[in-house]
Design the sequence.
């Protein structure tokens, strides 16, 4: 079961990459750094959750799949999407160089994921 939290997209950082690496962001009472999710491209989330839930995230978030040598997902801003899975929460971030030397980091959304099946 997957459910999207009703939060709006938030810009967390706009500036030099070195400064972003030093920042600590507090999200839903969690302290998160860029290095916590930087090496977690969204494609790897497929290994951790079921296909139906993964597809729901892609559709709802309007992420685009770019099939280059290594598949990657990008946000509406064209930034690569990464994730952080913390217990039953999945945080989705878009991050990258937006203009020469200018890096942007957004919290795209947060999802609640449970492996328990719905009663039916």
Sequence:
């Amino acid at each position: 079961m997957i459910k999207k939290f009703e939060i709006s997209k938030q810009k967390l950082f706009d500036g030099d990459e070195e400064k972003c690496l030093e920042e600590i962001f507090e999200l839903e009472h969690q302290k998160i750094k860029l290095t916590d999710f930087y090496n977690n491209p969204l494609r790897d989330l497929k290994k951790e959750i079921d296909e139906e839930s993964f597809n729901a995230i892609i559709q709802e978030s309007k992420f685009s799949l770019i099939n280059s040598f290594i598949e990657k997902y990008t946000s509406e801003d064209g930034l690569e999407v990464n994730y952080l899975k913390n217990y039953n929460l999945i945080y989705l971030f878009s991050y990258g160089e937006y203009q020469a030397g200018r890096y942007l980091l957004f919290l795209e959304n947060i999802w609640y994921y449970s492996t328990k099946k719905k009663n039916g």
User: Anything to note?
Assistant: The chain has a mean pLDDT of 92. The helical segments are 17-22, 51-61.
